[in-house]
Each structure stands twice: as C-alpha cells, then as structure tokens.
Specification:
This protein has 136 residues and is an alpha+beta fold. The chain is built from four helices and four strands. It has two domains: 4-63, Helix Hairpins (Orthogonal Bundle), CATH 1.10.287; 65-135. It has helices at 4-9, 12-34, 42-70, 72-78; strands at residues 83-90, 95-102, 107-113, 130-135. The chain starts with a helix and ends with a strand.
C-alpha cells in the first residue's frame, strides 16, 4: 500500500495500473469471501481504501487540469493548439502544478491550482482556485 505522498508523485499510467491491480485484488477477495475461503477480512477494507485513494488522486489531477485550462490567459494561449498537461502536487506550495506543453514538448503555460480553497456561503461567486500562472 503506497502512501498518499507516493501516489501523488506517480505518473498517471502507473496510477491507472495500480488501480487496475487493486480492483482485480478486490474482486478476488470478494469472491473468496463469498465462498467462505477468505482468511484476512481486514484486507477487503485496505484494498477498498487503496482504490479510493488512487481514484481521488486521478480525479484531483483531472480537476486541476480543467480549472487551469479554464483560466482566461491560459485558455487564450491553448486555443487552436494541440496540447497535453502534466500535473503534479507541489507540497511547498500546497497546490497542483499544471504544466501545459504542445505536442512537440514546448512549454506553453504553467498554473498552480489550490483545490482546497473553500467557498464562503455568503460569497456569490466561486473562489479563485488558480493561485498563479505563467504564460510563455
């Protein structure tokens, strides 16, 4: 079982492979439980938690990318271009760093997104989740 710090530093491909393996193990554990052959029932809970953590990290990466791409300056830079995003969590900034590159690998823009900002109940508009950004 990887810690959340380790999960945040894994690539999307590695996370998806980990998720697939955990779901397969969960299936096998449920099958063993149904046939009364499961010895360690606590393992079910551990694997369910691992699946949830991996899904959460993947979802946060996707959400951070969507929020960063919606930033007006970045959206203008990305318009009419094929791009890919590399997202990683930076603990020093407490934010997701989203780096946008074109298909050739040239950096187009970078944004830091804080998904933990809470919206006040009295505020009419959503909080500004993009902490800062750089457009190349």
């Amino acid at each position: 079982m990887a810690s959340i710090v380790e999960l945040n530093q894994m690539s999307n491909d590695k996370l998806e492979k980990t998720l697939e393996e955990a779901r397969e193990e969960l299936f096998n554990l449920r099958f063993q439980k149904a046939s009364a052959r499961l010895e360690n029932t606590a393992r079910l809970r551990q694997v369910r938690r691992e699946v949830a953590q991996v899904e959460t990290v993947l979802h946060q990466r996707q959400l951070a990318t969507e929020v960063a791409a919606a930033e007006p300056a970045i959206a203008e830079r990305l318009r009419d271009k094929e791009w890919q995003a590399n997202t990683r969590y930076v603990y020093e900034d407490s934010a997701w760093q989203v780096e946008f590159n074109d298909k050739g690998g040239k950096k187009l823009a970078t944004a830091w997104v804080n998904l933990n900002k809470a919206q006040s109940k009295k505020a009419a508009k959503a909080p500004q989740l993009v902490v800062r950004h750089e457009v190349k």
